[in-house]
Amino acid sequence: MMTSQSSGKQTSNFAPWFKSTWESLNLLNLPSAVLIHGQSGIGKFEFAIELAKAILCESAAPLSRPCNECEACHWFESANHPDFIALVPETHRKLLPHGDFDVEADSSKKSKAISSDSDGEASEKKEKKNISIEETRNAIEGLSIGTHRGGSRVILIYPLEMLRSDSANTLLKSLEEPPENTIFILLADRLDRVLPTIRSRCRLVSAPRPDRSTGLEWLRNQMALVPNSKFSSAEIESIYDEQGGAPYAVLQSLIARHHQDDKDELTIAIQASNNLLRAMSQGARIEWLDTAEKTQKARYSTLLSTMQRWTADLLSSAQMGHPRYYPKHEAAIQTLAKQARMPKLLNFWKSLVHARRHENHPLATRIQLEALLSQYQQIFED
Fold first, then answer.
1. Considering the entire predicted model, what is its pTM?
2. Are 182 and 45 found together in one domain?
3. What CATH number is given to the structural domain containing 159?
4. SS3 for 231?
5. Residues 128 and 38 in one domain
6. What pLDDT, on the 0 to 100 scale, is given for residue 174?
7. Is the same domain home to 197 and 315?
8. Which of 270, 288, 325, 341 could form a disulfide with 309 if both were Cys (CB 3.0 to 4.6 A apart)?
9. What whole-number distance in Å separates Cα of residue 309 and Cα of residue 226?
10. Is residue 117 one of the residues assigned to a domain?
11. Residue 155 belongs to what H/E stretch?
12. Residue 375 belongs to a domain
């Protein structure tokens, strides 16, 4: 086990509910590949970044945490460490240590990419959600040479399930014959979407989700650091439930609501989800064509997640339970649950599950939305 860190200069860069996970790892005897998996938005990426930094730290003593004082730590924080390679899609680069890319330039590029084509779909200039085969090959090919600083090399890949099949096969070859002094830190939101051949070659680490009180306390402390933030406890708790108890996802949502940037992707997602919820609360009276038009600019995966959580609450209420995700809509959900035809509701749930398997490659978001919302309307009709 790793020794405990006694220096008072260290600060925690990952959430407190990851403490036991961190203590379960041994920095001096890590396997060549670690696969950290768990719900999106619970802080596993921040945990992985701290782990990568600790592996590359050059402090003389085998500390349990990075020293934040050595040259390697400084290079890591400025995104200039030559032995740290991060393979993430364009949509996730803002999560990396600062300096990896020009934030202002990226924001400018993002705002230009919001323009729509004739069908209302986002243009092809939008940020890529997949890790390209070129990026993967370039990273893998460089592993044959020694490390730049004579120590370890860390390859971080997130989200692992977003790798294209050709990129995944390239990675698999390196996992089968791992390069010397190289550690792969792989992260996945959905372990079931990771190739079994990749899973079998990694040490699996399950990322924990905090209990509700711990998550809410952490959120309140984080929001206290945001200037002029005026969210009530009730508002924070409501969004916490909507996000399925994922504190980092809630924090991002709260900050986006605070800044109210209509061009920000997260703000667009929040507005679309709110429109979708208002429409679905209408049951048989839903105007599904209009709803698809108003929500199509948000990511398809976000819309599917909202629909799936709403449907889960409907199913729970139909079986004499209570809403988990949208308790503030309990009255409407209970009314709709009484009106719903259970066979149709179950079929709609199956349609959502099937759609989520292909959510990253929708043929046409608007058309698929229209089909799902039309099916939703029929749940409440004979």
1. 0.77
2. yes
3. 3.40.50.300
4. coil
5. yes
6. 87
7. no
8. 325
9. 29
10. yes
11. strand 153-157
12. yes
Phi-psi region of 31 (alpha: psi -120 to 50; beta: other; left: phi over 0): beta
Q: DSSP letter at 182?
A: E
**Residue 118 in tokens:** 């004739």
* C-alpha 298: how far from chain center: 15
pLDDT at residue 343, rounded to an integer: 95
Query: Cβ(35)–Cβ(201) under 8 Å?
Result: no
User: 27: helix, coil or strand?
Assistant: helix
Nearest to 43 by CA among 207, 199, 198, 284: 207
Among 75, 62, 63, smallest CA distance to 9 is for: 63
Same domain, 45 and 135: yes
| Count of structural domains within the chain | 2
Alpha-carbon distance of 349 to 312, in angstroms, equals 8
For position 316, which CATH number holds?
A: 1.20.272
Maximum separation of any 2 CA atoms in the chain, in Å: 73
- 78-126: per-residue pLDDT in tens? 888 888 989 888 777 777 876 443 433 343 333 333 333 333 343 334 5
Top pLDDT among 360 and 157 is at 157
Is the distance from CB of 181 to CB of 152 less than 8 angstroms?
A: yes
- Do 40 and 156 lie in a common domain? yes
Of the candidates 337, 335, 272, the residue with the CA atom closest to the CA atom of residue 306: 272
Phi and psi at 116, nearest 5°, equal -115, 155
Last residue of a domain, one of 206, 225, 254: 206
**How far is 309 from 325, CA to CA, in rounded Å?**
6
Question: What tokens appear for 363 in the block?
Answer: 């043929």
Burial class (CB in 10 A: 0-12, 13-18, 19+), 277: middle
Domain match, 37 and 170 both:
yes
Q: Does any domain span residue 300? A: yes
**Is 324 a domain residue?**
yes
Final residue of a structural domain among 146, 173, 206: 206
Determine contact, residues 157/163, Cβ cutoff 8 Å. Answer: yes
Parent domain of 294 = 282-382
Residues 67 and 194 in one domain: yes
